[in-house]
Design a protein that fits this description.
Strand order of the largest sheet of chain A: 1-2
Order of helices and strands of chain A: HHHEEHHHHHHHHHHH
CATH topology of the domain at 280-492 in chain B: Rossmann fold
Helix content of chain B: 25-40%
Strand order of the largest sheet of chain B: 6-7-8-3-9-10
Number of domains of chain A: 2
Structural class of chain B: alpha/beta
Largest interface: A-B, 51 and 67 residues
Largest sheet of chain B: 6 strands, mixed
Number of helices of chain A: 14
Shape of chain B: globular
Oligomer: heterodimer
Strand content of chain B: 15-25%
């Protein structure tokens, strides 16, 4: 698995989760992400484990989403109980809202678990090299982000240790304020240092003269807008056109991105995974226009059994493909 | 190679200029060390040479800096990358990628070298700096010193014509620091590289450099061969102070030269009374600690008693930082146990006792938690329940008065270190643990710190320092622990462990013998031997 494949997987996962609240598909996606996480922790391709904090935050998100939805959405045919007519939260509390809150929470948690595991698998070198030469500012920002996120974690740990040994009460509002302040300040400081290091290491020094953002940017922008319009209006042709534009511009950018010094590793397992992810994408687009797939399931106003399409189910299930492609050590 | 004309620079938001250099030039193949106290403008000058100033830092910039004929006003740092290699102060913040080999290749790829050249250059610098064993290591598992060597190697891989280094040996063990100096010397002598470095620990460099440039409060106060300018340093290194005490002019700039001048003179060492520790405060029993696949500590058994100062030394990556972090319950143990004040540091009951511990981590900025240094000191004063006088004493000792209103992250590396020490040492902590406390400190402040730590030990505190600064270790410690590959290799008094060692002997011991730990001891017995030294 290389950086480009991981990013494609994360993008597919985000897209797949954002368009459905069908519990079957969400559970399949969650299982797929969990299996990938287990495989990543078992093989540790970059020597790093997946962040555990994402599991805790994910569980908290599910609880939060259920609580908020049941208190705010007073719609549905299965009433659990009724609250007095208090502002905003007063009224019937329905099982439909609780269920929909759980589905939203699972979707958010799955997304968080999926994206957070990129920390353990994304090689910063590969990702930086994926950015076309002309996009120097974007690449610098990306480098800062890639480096800043682990730094925030280290800064939080250091600040927590400092709070402990400076005799400040832990888990108090004061310590929380201090922690946030210290983490942000350190993150900023570190980001500046990273940007400085990028400059003195000649980052994008050549590309500034050789490459300019040009036609590809316009295609990307136009394709993106078409895809958004297509998904809003429900026009599959517009959506397909938009996605094609985005794919063409990204492929063109990827071809230009590599100066020929270093090629992405494409072992057999990575090629097979790429093929599977391609099939997932096609199955997914197919399912979008298949009403039997019931991607747009909603438990409102009446709670009913969701539909299920084997093609869509297979697409969500195959998001687990990276779990089978991982090997110990660097791919 | 470098020409600086009427340079005047002021950081954004500051009222006073950080640097004023009317004229300064550097020829090809020169080896220059920048000396001066913390905040004197050394780092600012280096940043100006690599064009980070004005392009990256903004502020008010006047004058002109030409480097290899390129005007820094019109060339960004990335445009100078083929010409100038730069290594900043804090190696922790200068690594970008995941693996050592990738980090070294990164700049070469940026400049469009072919894969064959990249591979060859990476191998070359791995060997040059003795870090071939780190090639595939994840960078996050490296120690501070190992990271410093990697950042230096990344700069060298470009084979720049000018190499600018900001405290390049601050985290290196003595042996590695000497080997880095040897590499630099060869690069200058054999390849004609121009090297400019800023340093606080000048003793190691004075004998090798062609020029010493002294800065003070942003002004260039002396510039010339070290033999002429070393005496003008505001905080002269030990060799120069020794030379001044002995009336040598020009001063001796290396241990060999000092020994040659002293010839057969032998000094009688002052009588020392070894300090006997009191009750055991901290115990490590069979402590084994692992990071990833690597065992960092192996079966460590050691006790620390109150009323003593212990210095932990050892090469980079030997496990010094992990040992003190394990002692504080900050590292998960694979095996073994730690007892601090009679309890496990990770158990909830220990929380009530944390105020009894002062800890300065390897990255001292982490200890500074507010937006103004003054607020940090006030926070520490309240939590440690001490007086305003105690705060003033700390401010005075570490010369922090001009920095009180500054944001901790606007401070230089040395200033942060001083600030963190002041915050940690406020009050009367019973256990003081300092991880590399002398990084970026001037000799005067180091002496004050050593005196303060010894004073604290006298009043019953337990002091533990990890350090590469052997002169500091010898001056402050009653006991030395030498770590190697995660185990205790040697343990004993400084005379036993350091004095007799080839690699770890402090400077004064190398000149006057193992019985002498520091310059103060030499100066104490010097009057008696004065006639023979004249």
């Amino acid at each position: 698995m290389n950086g480009m494949l991981w990013l494609a997987w994360a993008l597919l996962l985000a897209l797949a989760i954002s368009v459905t609240r069908n519990p079957f598909y969400l559970l399949l996606a969650l299982l797929a992400v969990l299996s990938v996480r287990i495989a990543v922790d078992a093989t540790r391709p970059l020597g790093r484990a997946t962040p555990r904090v994402a599991v805790v935050v994910g569980l908290a998100l599910i609880g939060w989403s259920m609580a908020v939805n049941v208190l705010l959405a007073h719609v549905g045919d299965r009433v659990i109980t009724r609250l007095p007519p208090w502002p905003i939260i007063g009224g019937p509390l329905t099982f439909n809202a609780l269920f929909y809150g759980a589905l939203t929470g699972i979707a958010l948690a799955t997304l968080l678990l999926g994206v957070s595991l990129l920390h353990a698998v994304l090689d910063r070198h590969e990702v930086l090299r994926l950015v076309p030469g002309g996009y120097r500012v974007l690449a610098t920002t990306l480098a800062i982000v890639l480096n800043a996120l682990p730094t925030f974690a280290v800064a939080a740990r250091d600040a927590d240790e400092a709070i402990r040994f400076r005799g400040i009460a832990q888990y108090s509002p004061v310590s929380l304020r201090i922690l946030i302040n210290a983490v942000l300040a350190r993150g900023m400081d570190y980001s500046l240092a990273v940007a400085e290091t990028l400059e003195v290491r000649g980052f994008a020094a050549l590309s500034r003269h050789r490459h300019r953002p040009r036609f590809g940017s316009l295609v990307f922008l136009g394709g993106g807008m078409l895809a958004i319009s297509g998904s809003i209006t429900g026009s599959e042709i517009v959506l397909a056109l938009g996605l094609s534009g985005v794919a063409i511009s990204l492929a063109e950018a990827a071809l230009r991105a590599w100066p020929g010094v270093r090629a992405l590793p494409w072992p057999r397992s990575a090629r097979v995974t790429a093929l599977v992810l391609g099939l997932v994408a096609i199955s997914f687009v197919w399912s979008l226009r298949d009403p039997a797939a019931d991607l747009a399931y909603s438990p409102y106003p009446t709670l009913h059994w969701p539909g299920f399409s084997p093609v869509a189910g297979a697409a969500y299930f195959l998001l687990a493909a990276p779990a089978f492609a991982l090997r110990g050590g660097r791919a | 190679m470098i020409e600086v004309t009427k340079l005047h620079y002021q950081y954004p938001g500051r009222q006073t200029p950080a640097l004023i250099v009317p004229r300064w030039w550097v020829g090809e193949g020169e080896f220059i060390v920048l000396g001066g106290t913390t905040g004197s403008g050394k780092t600012t000058l280096l940043r100006s040479l690599v064009s980070l100033i004005p392009h990256f830092y903004g502020g008010w910039f006047g004058g002109r800096v030409l480097i290899g004929g390129r005007d820094t006003r019109f060339h960004r740092p990335a445009d100078l990358a083929d010409l100038v290699g730069y290594v900043g102060q804090e190696p922790e913040a200068q690594t970008l990628l995941d693996r050592v080999a990738d980090e070294l290749a990164f700049a070469l790829e940026n400049l469009g070298y072919t894969s064959a050249v990249v591979a060859a250059r990476v191998e070359e610098v791995l060997d040059l700096l003795g870090i071939a064993h780190l090639r595939e290591r994840p960078i996050e598992t490296l120690s501070g010193g190992e990271r410093q060597r990697v950042t230096l190697a990344a700069a060298l891989a470009l084979r720049p014509r000018v190499l600018l280094l900001d405290e390049p040996t601050s985290q290196l063990d003595p042996w590695t620091a000497e080997s880095v100096l040897e590499v630099l010397r060869r690069l200058v002598d054999e390849l004609g590289l121009t090297v400019i470095l800023a340093e606080h620990r000048l003793d190691r460099f004075l004998g090798s450099v062609t020029r010493l440039t002294v800065l003070e409060q942003g002004q260039l106060i002396a510039d010339g061969p070290p033999a002429q300018t070393a005496a003008l340093l505001p905080d002269p290194p030990i060799l120069v102070q020794l030379s001044q005490a002995l009336g040598w002019s020009p001063p001796a700039l290396s241990v060999a030269e000092a020994k040659r001048r002293l010839q057969r003179v032998s000094l009688r060492p002052p009588a020392k009374r070894p300090r006997v520790g009191g009750e055991v405060i901290l115990t490590l029993e069979g402590v084994t600690c692992q990071r990833g696949d690597r065992t960092v500590l192996r079966d460590i058994n050691v006790v620390f008693r109150c009323g003593t100062v212990t210095a932990i030394i050892g090469r980079n990556g030997a496990g010094k930082t992990t040992l003190v972090r394990s002692a504080l319950g900050l590292e998960p143990l694979q095996r073994g146990r730690v007892r601090l004040f009679g309890m496990k540091p990770e158990e909830p009951a220990f929380r009530k006792h944390r105020h009894r511990v002062a800890y300065v981590p390897q990255f001292p900025g982490a200890l500074l938690l507010t937006t103004r240094l003054a607020d940090d000191l006030e926070l520490a004063r309240r939590s440690r329940e001490c007086t305003h006088d105690a705060v003033h004493a700390m401010v005075e000792m570490f010369e922090l008065a001009p920095l009180l209103a500054a944001h901790p992250f606007d401070l230089s590396s040395g200033e942060r270190q001083r600030a963190a020490l002041a915050v940690a040492l406020l009050g009367h902590p019973e256990l003081v643990i300092l991880d590399e406390p002398t990084r970026g400190l001037s000799l005067t402040i180091k002496r004050r710190l050593a005196k303060e730590l010894r004073q604290r030990a006298t009043t019953g505190a337990t002091v533990i320092v990890t350090t590469h600064d052997l002169d500091f270790a010898a001056a402050v410690a009653d006991r030395i622990l030498l770590l190697g590959n995660g185990t205790v290799i040697a343990e004993g008094s400084p005379e036993q462990v350091l004095g007799e060692s080839f690699a770890y002997a402090p400077l004064v011991s190398r000149i006057f013998g193992p019985a002498f730990r520091g310059l103060e001891e030499v100066l104490q017995v010097l009057p008696a031997a004065a006639p023979s030294l004249a």
